[in-house]
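Here is one chain, start to finish.
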Amino acid sequence: MSASPPSIAPFDGSSVCLFCGSSDAADPRYTHAAAAFGAATAQAGWRLVYGGGGVGLMGASARAAHEAGGRVLGVMPGFLRSRERLFDEVETLVVTSMHERKQIMYDQSDAFVVAPGGIGTLEEVVELLSWKRLDLHGKPVIFLNIDGFWETFFALMRHSVETGFTPASFLEAWIVCDSVEAAIAAMRHGDASPGLKHDQR
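Its structure:
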């Protein structure tokens, strides 16, 4: 992958990318979980990499990580600055496109956690899993499955396997955690199946 952009301050520790929703209308249970995850990330000594916004689950996680003394890196396309309300109290990189945003978030992260979110979050994790399906990366992908939020997505993936479009081994390409504590533990232990090849045709 590409080298770190020179405008990003160096960080020697591990980094986790959080994909999550930016809506302030989301169920407060999800927002509270995102805040708890941000704080726990800081307490674990990990840098939080996220979409740069100050609203919804994004804003809650970044504020909590920052207030807990953690390092935070936000990455946001310029055209979303007003919609997602740039959270500029932390290090933030403004880029030109969604593609550039996702590439930098990938390059800067050692693991990925997917909290509840909408179509944007779904698009991000589907691309990440597609890269894993093609064996382009082996980084852990962890779903923070608060109150079973992602169960219908997992059902769709199982349907894809049952109908012959995806090998059964791909169902091992992610980790499901029902709590923030479990997600932090999964980050620390990494991918349980790093040698697994998912592109079996």
